[in-house]
Design goal:
Order of helices and strands: HHEHEEEHEHHEHEEEEEEEEHEH
Shape: globular
Structural class: alpha/beta
CATH topology of the largest domain: Stationary-phase Survival Protein Sure Homolog, Chain: A
CATH class of the largest domain: Alpha Beta
Length: about 375
Amino acid sequence: MMMPPGLVSNLQEALLNRKGAQPKQEQEESNDNAEPVEAEIDPSKPILLITNTHGVDSPGLTHLVEALLREGLYNVHVCVPQSDKSVSGHSVTLRETVEASSANVSGATGFEISGTPVDCVSLALSGALFSWSKPILVISGINRGSSSGHHVFYSGVVAGAREALLWGVPSLSISLNWKKDESQDTDFKDAAAVCLPLINAAIRDIEKETFPKSCFLNVEIPTSPLNNKGFKLTKQSLWRSTPNWLAVSTNRYPAGHFLANQQGGLGIQFAQLGRDASAAGAARRLTTQKKNLEVVESIGAAGKSDSKKVKKYFRLEFLDKQQEDTDDDDDLDHRALESGYVAVTPLSLSPHIENDIQMAASDWISTVLPGEQ
């Protein structure tokens, strides 16, 4: 005999109460009223927020956090994406729930976020995640691969620092000029050591209110960090890797499937979703870590296919072949980076850096790093 739905609901609630559990509605209300996570904070030390694009297991993140903790001067907190978002640009997550999972990064309090680097910074600065809402500095990095030239528009690590500036918080983005068959994970430890004096100087002058305003600094570390020629103030160049779209076999990747391969600094992405799912259909995501392959499988009612419709499939790769600047200016970011300098480029929210911002950054760098260019 089928029991009335109302009676079933009442019985379930009574059973939950007997076991000492909260009814579902009360649980939801309790979650809605949850307080921000209280981390152990030494009030005598400034708060740093660290984000990145490659997630919690990135050696760039690990070595940067360890270097900052060894200083013993800061409260270090981490908020990073759950998966690789190295080419996410300044994208945000809308109309979807973002999950935050606690994580310990070399002793620093942290969270993994099911979103982009911009989501990480925005959520952390909102006051909804941590008990604080405004750190003294946001550091995005250390990224695996250069973010100079036109790569700043693709770069998730640069976007993380840019988002902090939108919130009125000083920020740095840091990248290592990683090269295949030449770089190794231990280079991130050296990169952290190289940029630490710049970080310490930035924090000191933020407290003094002498740090450049209206911009953030994009720091590019050369492939061999310890052999760098010093810090150099640079301007954004027009350099970029060459994009290359490849046709993909329809037999291998049929409609209704999604392929994403994030190997390398920029990675490749390909997506094609079929239109064979009804409005009431649901989707189930399966992850195959071995091949880094995601498949979205429709389980809705299939509609009629259009045999006359032409469908083509492509994926994007960024080739090692690079498009060089025609400008002979030695102060361009990528040219200085390839010459062995640590390139420091001020970036503002405007497409163009104003002369006064460039001069302020130049004056600051020459003050905190004497002898640098």
